[in-house]
Structures are given as structure tokens and as C-alpha cells.
Amino acid sequence: MTVDAIRFEPLSTRHLEAVVELVHDPEVRRFTRFPDPPDPGFPARWIARYDAGRADGTLEAVAAVDAHDLFLGVGLAPRIDHDAQEVELGYVVAPEARGRGVARALLTEMTRWSFDEGCALRAELVIDVANVPSQHVAAACGYQLEGVMRSLHVKNGLRADCQLWSRLADD
Question: For 92-128, what is each residue's pLDDT tens digit?
Fold first, then answer.
């Protein structure tokens, strides 16, 4: 698969089955804010939340699919601050699509969207310090490491340190 074969479309209930599989992947649960374990209704509520956020301009999510309509992952804007002209971005790649440039394509698309359509001047990534592959994606897409936010998230009783990466519209 090449990056050229990836198509982006709004995340919707059409992708529900793939999202159910995605949220049950141990690596996804380890490095995302998804609940661990997710309750059975979580994937549908999560998609509905992004659908509502798209409608009111507070959230955005796209699905990446290949030429055969195979789900590859999602690109997310879980925080959009119109007043500050800032957006937080994220990306989650399906296990079978990892290592093929999908994360980089998702982040490139979401960054483009942020600056061209989302009217952001600053895009941020919050990446777990143990998620080295995601850190490589951030750097490859022109993001700069700003530092480590200590004990930022709690999951299953454990606190995690996260790196803050950013890119500006004029970078």
C-alpha cells in the first residue's frame, strides 16, 4: 500500500465495526484516552460525539480508508479552540495498517485541515512518553517537541507522562 492509495472521509457510523475493533486493540488502549476496558456502547457514543462536534465546530474526525475501502485508522481533532486559534490533533492506526505510512498521512491531512479549513494558527499533539513510533511521526510531519507534561493522564490507576508537540501555521 502506498500513501497515495489512502482516502479520507468523515468518521461515521459506517466505520462502527472497525472502531469497535480499534478500541479493543491493546496498543490503542495503552496510548489513547479510550477507556480500558471500553464498555460495549463506547464506540457508537464516541462516533456520535465526533459527529455532533463536526456539526457545531468543536470536534473533527476523519477515517482513512484504502482503495478497497478497508479501514486504516482515524485522524482526530479532540479539542478545537476557535478563540485561541488552536487545535489538538491525534491519530490512531488500525493494527493491520501500522508501519505503512498511515499515521503520517493522517497527521499530514489533519494538520492541513487545521490550518486551511479549521482556521488554526497552532496545532498540538499530546503523546505518551513511551509511544516512540508516534513521536517519530510527529517529528516527520514537522512538529516540534516542546517538553514533557508530568503525570498528565490517569488510566487504570496509573499516571502517564506525555510530551507536548506543536506546529505553527507558518512553520
Answer: 999 999 999 999 999 999 999 999 987 899 999 999 9
102-129 core/surface letters (b: 16 or more CB in 10 A; e: else): bbbbbbbbbbebbbeebebebbbbbbbe
Q: Kindly report the number of other CB atoms within 10 A of residue 37's CB atom.
A: 11
Residue found by looking up cell 514533557 in the block:
148
H helix and E strand count, the chain: 5, 7
What pLDDT score does 153 carry?
77
Secondary structure string (H, E, C) spanning 36-75? CCCCCCHHHHHHHHHHHHHHHCCCEEEEEECCCCCEEEEE
Positive or negative torsion for Cα 135, 93, 22, 34: positive
Helix segments in 57-170, DSSP class H: 102-116, 132-140
Order of all β-strands in the sheet with 144-155? 7-10, 60-65, 71-81, 86-93, 122-128, 158-168, 144-155
Q: What is the pLDDT of residues 141-163, one digit of tens each?
A: 999 999 999 998 777 778 889 99
Superfamily of domain 3-168: Gcn5-related N-acetyltransferase (GNAT) (3.40.630.30)
Task: Record the cell numbers describing residue 15, joined without a space.
Answer: 466505520
Sign for the pseudo-dihedral over CA of 31, 37, 43, 45: negative
